[in-house]
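S.,

Sequence below, as promised.
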Amino acid sequence: MKKKFLLTIAMSAIVFATSQAQEFRYGLSGGYNLNSMIANESKSGFHAGLKGEYAFRDAQKGLYTDFGLMISSYGWKSTPAYENGTGKELEWDTTPYYLNIPIHLGYKFKVNDNLSIFVNAGPYFNIGMFGKMNYTTTYPDGKTETGISSNNMFKDGLSPRFDWGIGFRAGVEIARHTQIAIGYDWGMKNAYMNKPETKNRTFVVSLTYYF
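The prediction came back faster than expected:
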């Protein structure tokens, strides 16, 4: 009797674990960032890391949440600015890197057994890790000078260590494993301390493979 009871418990645990595994999955994701700020030029970057997805079985079919742990670059370039009284033209070029943590709620519309369309939206949180700021000075005679303003923008206080915003994604899922998505992220916090209105605005294209 005891053996039958233990066997029943063991089988129940296996069934429970299997059903839970079907609700949660994880994979690898990466792609392209095109980041800009108000009054600044846009700059290309990338994102790469891990993604997870959880399907709500007790909710309406198709509802899910996904989240990620990404390394992401949000570079920007300043527009040329003249220094008063000198005739010099100054430009700054930055490449900050963040640990990017998006948490989105989404819905999938099934087209057929091998194709679904999905949309999702939600907050993201950035933790600054490292990133350089370079400068270029152009003199009235046309000569240029380049150098490094900061080897670590976060450590030197040029950018806040914490950033957050709201993101949106839309795309297709193929054969239940591969997702192709485009989206946009709206930063809610100034990302450069020395200039107002420097919130990140990022167009994103990503490819994700779930195991």
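Residues 2-21 have pLDDT under 50 and may be disordered.

Coffee later?
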